[in-house]
Amino acid sequence: MAYFDGVKVGDRVWDVEKGYGTIVEIKDWKNSVGEKVEDFIFVKFDKYELMKPFGYTTEGKRWDSPFDGQTLFWDEVKFEIPKKPVVKLKETQYIIGVLDEEQYINTSNKKFSDDYYNTSAVKYGLTRNDKETAKKALKQIKRFTRLLALRDQECLDSKGYEFQFEKENYYILKKERTNKYEYGVASYRNYLGVYFKTEEDAQKICDILNSGRFDLEGE
Questions:
Q1: What percent of the chain has pLDDT over 90?
Q2: Are 169 and 176 in contact, with CB atoms under 8 Å apart?
Q3: Crossing angle of the two packed helices 199-210 and 131-154, in degrees rounded to 10
Q4: pLDDT over 80 (residue 114)
Q5: At 116, is the pLDDT very low, low, confident or very high (cuts 50, 70, 90)?
Q6: Quick one: which of 32, 85, 97, 171 has the most CB atoms within 10 Å?
Q7: Is residue 161 part of a domain?
């Protein structure tokens, strides 16, 4: 028994891609000796009223691609759209102290009773599962936050500045060969770094760092 057995002209149906429509014609298909093989149903869809009717088999498959799956049904098929999978941070053992390198708290030893703080630390990526990795992360975080703070303190035009696509965004880099700080410019690539609005601000911070008046390591 076919899915659309008993279908009649005027019946309302629903297609996965085209939505609701009305059956406007039913034709039987015969083989070379005149024997009826199958009925074809033709549907005029509400959204495509100016187009010719679309043909389907009585199994609800497009007549021109019957080997594909069924797309036509008596009524709308409700789909539950799955949520996008997310990556959860599982590095939770040590909270990274941002004041000094010795400030680490093992979350399993219950020294820190404030669960909200622990949860926030994980949320903001301030935890690692081993102390050595936490130490390395702390150094990287310190460089970034100190450079960010220096920019916001010394460069009023660049204070709070974030990357702007198709604009000139200046950033600081350190040349390992010369051990000197220089600036670069990015317009189409966001390197997730500290950016400056003007070339003058970027040069100002380079001069401060190269003169030794400020240490990003903060030792």
A1: 51
A2: no
A3: 120
A4: no
A5: very low
A6: 171
A7: yes
Q: Which residues pair with 173 in a beta bridge?
A: 182
Domain count, the chain: 3
Extract the tokens encoding 81: 């759209």
Which residue from 15, 18, 140, 10 is spatially nearest to 75, judged by alpha carbons? 15
Q: How confident is the model at residue 36 (pLDDT cuts 50, 70, 90)?
A: low
The pTM of this model reads 0.60
Q: Taking the chain, what is the end-to-end CA distance rounded to the nearest angstrom?
A: 81
Residues 157 and 216 in one domain: yes
78 in a structural domain: no
Top mean pLDDT of 73-87, 124-138, 150-164 is at 150-164
Q: Are residues 204 and 152 in the same domain?
A: yes
Residue 80 forms part of a structural domain: no
Q: How many CB atoms lie within 10 A of CB 58?
A: 18
Find out whether 150 and 205 touch, Cβ atoms under 8 Å. yes
Q: Which residue has the tokens 């100016």?
A: 50
39 confidence band (pLDDT: 50, 70, 90)? confident
Other CB atoms within a 10 A radius of the CB of residue 202 amount to 25
Closest listed residue to residue 63, CA positions, set 22, 35, 28, 12 = 28
